[in-house]
Amino acid sequence: MKKATPVSGRAPVKKQTAPARAAWYQNKWLLLSLTLLVTLVVYLPSLKNGWTNWDDNGYVIENDLVKTLDLKTHFTTFQVMGNYHPLTTWSLALDYSRYGLDAYGYHLTNLLIHLGSTMLLFWFLSMLFGNGLVAAFGALVFSIHPMHVESVAWVSERKDVLYVLFYFAALVSWLHYLNRKQASMYALSLLLFVLSLLSKGQAVTLPVVLVLIDWLRRRKWDIKAILEKTPFFLMSVAFGIVAVLAQRESKAIQDIPDYTFLHRLLFASYALFTYVWKFFVPVNLSAFYPYPIKGTIPVSYCVGLVATLLLIAAVVFLFRESRWMWFGLLVFGVNIALLLQLLPVGSAVVAERYTYLAYVGLIIALGYVLMNGLPVGEKGYKVPRNASLAVASAMLVFFAYQTNARIRVWHDSEKLWTNVLEQYAYAPNAHNNLGSYYQKNNEPALALHHFNVALSYQSDFPEALINRSDIYRVNGKLDSAIADCSHAIRLDPHYEGAYMNRGIARSIAGQYDSAYNDFDHVIAINPNNARAYGNRGNLNDMRGNYEQALADYNRALLLNPEYNEVYGNRARTLAHLHRYDEALADLDKAVADNPQNPEPYALRADVHNSLGRYREALEDVTTAQQLGKPINPAFVALLKQRLGE
Fold first, then answer.
1. Which phi-psi region, left, alpha or beta, contains residue 206 (left: φ > 0; alpha: ψ -120 to 50)?
2. Is the distance from CB of 145 to CB of 114 less than 8 angstroms?
3. pLDDT tens digits, residue range 368-399?
4. What is the pTM (predicted TM-score) of this model?
5. CA distance 103 to 37
């Protein structure tokens, strides 16, 4: 029998329950914080990395532009290393003003910008999906993907992290504009786009992505939609033209005469498949992916073409009804299409840095699958929640491990190029750059070996010829050094480094007239080459043309006040002209710059002796002897005699 329920004279009171607390994975601020923390921990080793000899010299170490913070100078410099990116060079100048040539500061700035981009991508994906967990996953895939190490851990790729920061900020502002219809958000998005273009020309794709966002949101394509995109497209066209002209001026855009257009299609399909494959399986990574050895096309390139065609067919068949999947894949395609080497830029068929922005499209497609399942068939296939979490977690752990290991490869030039040669032993650039590293670190035998190997794979390699000529010159093989330089000049008649090296070798060989002509060639090619004036000054001094030598030294120091070795050389010329006080001032600076160099002490002793300052002369002679400089005993005896010792 059913138990009776007591009845009271008043209505029963409902038990009050506290509102359910949101799960941790619904807290966007917590998710964002965790994302940034993981990224920071994974990338901390990058702060211990140094410089590499791959573009870091041109962008920072030997780039006078980073020594000024004058914005006008940066904006009116048409190209640096084949790019017009004044904001990038200005950001490097900011680092230089604070850190000098301490690589730590530059790596720190790269990492901070990368963290900023990760945060902005999180908000963009959160606004796009309306799901914080998917946004966190997508932002983490972007921030710790091993293919992105090159963009973050390489100082020269400041342009990548900076332009993407502004690119993501422009996308977030654009979504705010679409949601709120605020003119200020539209103006902010346009401004951020311009800043992105000023950081790297690759940002020209943003207007197309804006159109794709409209298509995803099913916005009506009317005159208003067209007009609001017009300024973006106009800016893209203008900066696109500037980018091509800058690349052409630096000869970064080049023809590859050994390959037909069909070959280039093979390269493009191979690159496309490689980018997609390495998104999911980022192994056997390399800083440099060379073209095949001339006259050969590996089977892998043909396989890449077939695989790419099959992949495109599968995507069209499986996802033809899914707007979200197509949106993600088109964002990827738009951002990778111009980088598939149909118009060859550089000497690599694949470059990991090209994925830094492009992978966002694949991240969107993957995020959609994890949230909604595979859009296959009428109802699609819903991926079980636990399976999604397991796959996503495993992917992130693998990426974190690979990225952390990859960062250490970028520690220095030796590790970097040794790693490249483990993948591509036939890469001439890698052998040349590794040889340069050994040359700089006083291992000439190893350097010569790698230069020889580089030239065995590519005999028409001017940079390797010039580097080898340095080794030959130091070893006293002046004829071989001159021959290598002459070969490089035949390959590139405007290669100022070849004329410079040949001029130095000819000077040592006593071929003064020919050396003089070489230095004149350098100055004709680049009137701002301070070293050419310095070398020509040395030659004029050797020939007794002291006034001309002095004019050259003065010009060299005007162009580069930090060209310190000129001070000692100019002092020698001034001493010849009996301008002893000026010579002493230069020698004092030379000694202060390098106290371990005995030459300025020995020359200063001569100048002091000429001025009758025998005590100072004896002190300098003694110091020079202590530093290993042989001094004529008769000169020392004369000084002591004059001092009454």
1. alpha
2. no
3. 888 776 665 555 556 666 777 888 889 999 99
4. 0.86
5. 23
